[in-house]
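Re: the request from the purification team.
They wanted to know what the chain is likely to look like in 3D before they choose a buffer screen. I agreed to run a prediction and write the result into the notebook, where they can find it.
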Amino acid sequence: MCLVLGLGLIGGAVAGAVINHGPRAARPVADGSPEAFAKARNVWRDTPVDQLFPPTVEEKGGGPGGADRSWTRIGVATPSGCAGAFDPLLQRVITPVGCVRLLRATYVDSTSSTVTTVGLLVTAGEAPAMNALNQRWTAEHLGDRADLLPRPVAFPGTAAASFGDRQRGSWDVQVAADLPFVVYAVSGFADGRTVSAPLPAAKADAAGATSASAQAGLGYDATGLASAVDDRLHAAVAAQLHPTTTPAGPEKH
């Protein structure tokens, strides 16, 4: 796996990650300068794959009804460009910030019933472009649109062997305003069933939601894994930009 991922995504393995998410406060890491963005943009080369995409992720109270949730990584895709990784309209939305590299991994939950692909898009955009995309994403509620979905990564011979576009049940896209990154996750059922009306994580997690995606906790899968990777990404960037105040691990809320 390390050979496939290339130089920089090697060594320094971490056994797993335990995240407890509450309200996510603003966490400015970079000062918005081109120099800071350039350093942050190279973090993926210098950070071990197991640090960005831990082999296991646990979230206390991160499931329906406050149940604990855990996921196991079943595959890591080769770092790539962005062609074919997003629905066409989503590809158009993110085009202004560019695509330097796309990193992706797929996880299965502890019951082997749901699968989730989490992605880290390293953009070419500087602070003004990222801030504009972040504001547009929020103001236009683009995260609620079912025609703006990231695409999953299937791995033959695993629980995600049948994980394709028609199996997408929920998703979460997190656009950074202060860093050149977009983190996302898209979830579905491990048995390959199709979902006719996928729900954004915020709606799938809402109290009283009765769809199969909501009851299966697909929104919790998407948000939990996207947020876990985003936390670890911020920790890695902080360690690179501020080495004298290196954090011990991902931020906990």
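For the purification team: The chain has one domain: 2-244.
Please add any questions underneath this entry.
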